[in-house]
Amino acid sequence: xxxxxxxxxxxxxxxxxxxxxxxxxxxxxxxxxxxxxxxxxxxxxxxxxxxxxxxxxxxxxxxxxxxxxxxxxxxxxxxxxxxxxxxxxxxxxxxxxxxxxxxxxxxxxxxxxxxxxxxxxxxxxxxxxxxxxxxxxxxxxxxxxxxxxxxxxxxxxxxxxxxxxxxxxxxxxx
Length: 174
Fold this sequence. Notes:
- The protein is α/β, with parallel strands linked by helices.
- Helix content is 23%, strand content 36%.
- It has five helices and ten strands, in the order E-H-E-H-E-H-E-E-E-H-E-H-E-E-E.
- The strands form two sheets. A five-stranded mixed β-sheet has the order 2-1-3-10-4. A five-stranded mixed β-sheet has the order 7-6-8-5-9, with helices on both faces.
- The radius of gyration is 17 Å and the shape is elongated.
- The protein starts with a strand and ends with a strand.
């Protein structure tokens, strides 16, 4: 049996899956949307997702709605609490693009702490992707996992640190 979740390997979802794994094989996907659009292909497997899941690809898709409308495709079998890796809000003081690059689930944090300071927001599928795009495009803001952001460049300033808890849901895919 496979356990499907968001990759790459350094995402919180992959970390939570490794915490939960017993004898399943871990299958990492580029986005939760990629999993949810192909649930029928994964019958008999399991799905792990955070209750904070929200999609920017499909505006009406989030964990709460998925949990309600997919009852014929999945069965909630377990849940557990596992904190996210500490998050940091990083500002590039020498930015080239006045934008924030973030994972959709962190939008509330960004808006709460930056309010009117943030210009455009680019949503990506995971925090590792947000970090890569932020660095490549020299964007102004991002929210990423503190453990993976290793740059010592003085232009990158940590504006705030967050240490949220997360509830993880495990589903049997029917």
